[in-house]
Amino acid sequence: MGKDKITTVVPCFNEEAVVELFYEAVCRVAEQMKEQAEFEILFVDDGSTDRTLERIRALRSRDSRVCFLSFSRNFGKEAAMYAGLEHATGDYVAVIDADLQHPPELLIPMYQSICSGDYDSAAARRTTRKGESRLRSFVSKRFYRVLARLSKIEVVDGEVDYRLMSRKMVNAVLQMSEKNRFTKGIFSWVGFRTKWIPYENVERAAGTTKWSLWKLLKYSMEGIIGYSTAPLMLVSLIGVLFCIVAFVAILYIVIKTLIWGDPVGGWPSLACMLLGTSGIQLFCMGILGQYLGKTYLEVKNRPIYLAAIVEMNDQTEKEKEKGNSEA
Ligand code: UDP
Ligand code: MG
Predict the structure, then answer these.
(1) What is the pLDDT of residue 281?
(2) Exposed, middle or buried, 149 (CB in 10 Å: 0-12/13-18/19+)?
(3) What CATH superfamily is the domain 4-208+304-318?
């Protein structure tokens, strides 16, 4: 029986400081696993503006196991992971960060768990959040709890985007070709049995994080809007609640007028109610707008990413042409 092939998909956005360190770490793991598996190291350059691409090219000229795609601009990590999964040729495919926060040594137990036949994927789960601000861990814990309540999407506490998948699962993930991608949700949605492998959080080897608070906020919205229609339900509930309040108020005023007559007054309370209700209406329209906006982008059916350069090993001429014309 031939050896298995493991592809590591590595999204890189301005990672010139760590690309080589990462490569060396994976090579050490590949060396340890050489009896069972051969490696394909697939870098996805997500429109870096530094020398990341140059570094990757240099690695490819040294080592034919290194392949890469380079996007025409920055499309985001989710798009980079999708592109990587699409081009990966391995029997098993891992997604892993370039900054060495995802220890490549974990690939060994991950591979073993899948090979045992009981699992289709093995994912890493960090048990500590060392080096992360208190506020950030608190907010993200809360967020995943809310998401689980609203959407039946289970994101395991400490889950990171680091997992090894069988070909079966990779194909399932690729079938989900939605444009608004929330990969943790996708992994949970496709199901399959996952083995969780705990590890201690590691700080970035070098370089800086690409996540701003704003990006994280947008990412969480993506999660909720993409996997749950509960906010729409909330809008309807608020509507019903307001109708009931209005109905009771009308009854009260009519009866009061019939019994005691109607001295004109109370316009300040009226003004407050008007402001309050129109505020809530706008808020609800905003929620509807979020869904409409997502639908609009989805309907446009734009590609998830555009690759300017594709350098894979067993690439057919046709694919090469496609890669070049995609830009
Ligand atoms: N990344 C990417 N495109 C982006 C942002 C990030 O491909 O627009 C990559 C980045 O190069 C890294 C991984 O995604 O390999 C995780 O990013 P980062 O380390 O900045 O996130 P953190 O670990 O702080 O959550
Ligand atoms: Mg990181």
Answers:
(1) 86
(2) exposed
(3) Spore Coat Polysaccharide Biosynthesis Protein SpsA; Chain A (3.90.550.10)
